[in-house]
Amino acid sequence: MVLEDSNSRRTISLEDSKYSLGRHSSNSIIIYSKQVSRRHATLIRKFNRKTNQDSFWILDGDLEGQKSQNGIFVNGEKCTIHELKDGDLINFGCEVNASYHAVSTATISDSFIDKNVPKQSTKSVKQPINQVPTLYLDNPTEESDFALETSSLKDLGNDDTFQEESYLDPLTELPNRILFNEYISIAITNAKRHRNCLAIFLIDIKNFSEINDNFGYKIGDYFLQAIAERLKNCIRTGDIAARWGGDEFAILLPHINEEDNLYKITQRIIKELKDPFTVEDNNQSLATHLGMAIYPKNGQVPQQLLNYAETQLIHHKKTDNHNILNENLSKEDVSLSQVEKRLYEALTKEELCLYYQPQLNSNTRKTEAIEAFIRWNHPKYGLVPPRQ
Predict the structure, then answer these.
(1) Which intervals hold domain EAL (predicted)?
(2) Cys staple from 183: which of 27, 65, 159, 214, with CB 3.0 to 4.6 Å?
């Protein structure tokens, strides 16, 4: 990589599997410009099955989910994740530029190695090129603060390549559910370490199916893209907006100081989405339902928080209520909501069984009727009694 900033023009040999780029001195590659974010971008080397070679991917921001202030542009197009190819031109949203060149390591001479780029310690944990990093703590340069979690790779199938489409929603270009879960894991780890709070919002667009019915799916897609843009514009730097699926979106606030501030954020989101949208001469105001969970108040792990937020979302859909902060859901509400959700899954997975019980006449000792029962044959708990 050839990097040009206000200080110099450098040729950097990319020999390690991960590099952080930014103006802070802790970065692997320091960029000397005040217009560049402290941690502006990340380079990760992955294996590309199509070419049977390693390739570098550039990500906007760091691996904690913090995006850069000005973004990154590859060949003139702004991107969140991009696989670099030979000759690609990279701009860091200011006067700093770089070019990427795929050069065989056998042809790299010592003169190409930038002495200002610190080598990673041989004691540090190396990232295997067939793994996707999903959990990093605040200072990845310290061995004790660096970890990898690979369980989420099950969601990606057997493909060990780092694919942009696996992490971004193709319609809105927001992080998808897989990447959003990654960000939650990272945020919880950092919140535990610094004893901070974080919040998760699940947002459902009310009666969005009517837009598809009235205007068509193409216009519906345009509305979803417009919603995504508004969500990105109304959150703070460092917050994450994602496409949760269908007409649902999600927002992660990795740093919150006081719960009272959440009311203002909630109202800003509702107002932003309530203002009329104009898509190809079609004007439409949208109403929303929100569900929220706060760490550590409502859960200690990602799934607990997501379950709680989803429970609130379902509750507010039924009551058509936006007051997600001052309303406390009882344990019964949460339990019933979770059972309802699991029963839907049981229907899909065909876990419900039909049993028949004869009704006998005690005088004639003959069968006069048969009563039918549905029983839930849970794969883990077996037959679930009706009272449960």
Answers:
(1) 336-388
(2) 65
pLDDT digits (tens, 9 = 90+) for 273-318: 888 888 777 777 788 888 999 998 899 999 999 999 999 888 888 7
| Rounded to 5°, angle at Cα 172 from 170 and 178 | 65
2-108+120-127 shares its CATH topology with 196-344? no
Rounded distance between C-alpha atoms, residue 209 and residue 248, angstroms: 12
The partner residues of 288 in beta bridges, in order of sequence, read 205
Rounded Cα distance between 290 and 333, Å, is 16
**This prediction's pTM:** 0.52
Q: How far, in Å, CA of 233 to CA of 354, rounded?
A: 52
- Tell which residue, 300, 307, 370, 373, has the closest CA to residue 334: 307
Tell me which CATH code domain 2-108+120-127 carries: 2.60.200.20
Cα gap 114→108, rounded to integer Å: 12
Going by the DSSP 8-state scheme, the letter that residue 385 receives in this structure is: P
**Could you tell me the CATH superfamily of domain 196-344?**
Reverse transcriptase/Diguanylate cyclase domain (3.30.70.270)
Strands (E), the chain: 2-4, 9-11, 18-22, 29-30, 41-48, 53-60, 72-74, 77-79, 81-83, 89-91, 97-99, 197-205, 240-245, 248-256, 277-279, 282-284, 288-295, 352-360, 367-378, 382-384
Number of H helices, E strands in the chain: 6, 20
Here the tokens at position 64 are: 């904690």
Cβ proximity of 44 and 17 under 8 Å:
yes
In angstroms, the Cα distances linking 241 to 35, 65, 297 are 24, 11, 22
**What gap in Å lies between CA 63 and CA 82, rounded to an integer?**
15
Q: What is the pLDDT of residues 197-224, one digit of tens each?
A: 899 999 998 888 888 888 888 888 999 9
Helix (H) or strand (E) holding 303: helix 302-319
